[in-house]
Specification:
Blueprint lengths: L1 H12 L8 H14 L38 H63 L12 H44 L1
GO molecular function, one term: protein kinase inhibitor activity
InterPro entries: Prkrip1 (IPR009548)
Protein name: (diamondback moth) hypothetical protein
Length: about 190
């Protein structure tokens, strides 16, 4: 009896799974990997780059200069020609790939430089705004539009007004200190009499 139950449970486990989308496929692959987590995962190595065969040290099939090429030598000539064309094609493809890589790296470098300049400019603008706000003693305002020349003139006028207000405030504070000290003196003189 127990064997029949085990067979039935195995059959239930082997129910065909219908893959409807990429998520189901990925889930199936992950479940298969997680069934045996101790099994090592084999990662394929990247494809190796082709390289040219080393040129021969000694060329055995040298055609003589005194006689013309016979029909028996044509297959040798054809093979050498095919080999030379393959070598030239490989050199051209390699130079084209290097050129594209250089252009790509130059473009990335230019984009990075432009982004750095842009962020530096914005940082300087932020710090300048923060410094001006600190000088005014107010919180920095967020402006959506760029200031025009009339707005920049008015901002310089505002700075001049704030400086003059600070000067008058300091003068008023010194006058009030003098007045309070003068008030204290007469009271002490009245008490002495």
């Amino acid at each position: 009896m127990s064997t029949k139950k085990e067979k039935n449970s195995k059959k239930e486990d082997k129910v065909p799974i219908v893959i409807k989308n990429a998520t189901d496929l990925q889930r199936l692959k992950l479940e298969k990997l997680m069934k045996n987590p101790e099994k090592p995962v084999v990662l394929p190595e990247p494809p190796r780059q082709k390289s040219l065969a080393a040129p021969p040290d000694f060329v055995r099939n040298v055609m003589g200069s005194s006689a013309g090429a016979g029909s028996g030598e044509f297959h040798v000539y054809r093979h050498l020609r095919r080999k030379e064309y393959a070598r030239q094609k490989f050199i051209q493809e390699k130079s084209e790939k290097e050129k594209l890589d250089d252009e790509y790296h130059a473009k990335i470098e230019a984009n990075k430089r432009a982004a750095d300049e842009k962020t530096a400019k914005k940082r300087a603008k932020r710090l300048k705004k923060k410094k001006l706000a600190k000088m005014k003693g107010k919180k920095p305002k967020v402006e959506n539009a760029a200031p025009t020349s009339s707005q920049s003139d008015s901002s310089s006028e505002d700075e001049q007004q704030s400086e003059s207000n600070e000067d008058t405030n300091s003068q008023v504070s010194t006058h009030t200190e003098d007045a309070t000290s003068n008030l204290d003196k007469p009271n002490s003189e009245n008490n002495d009499k």
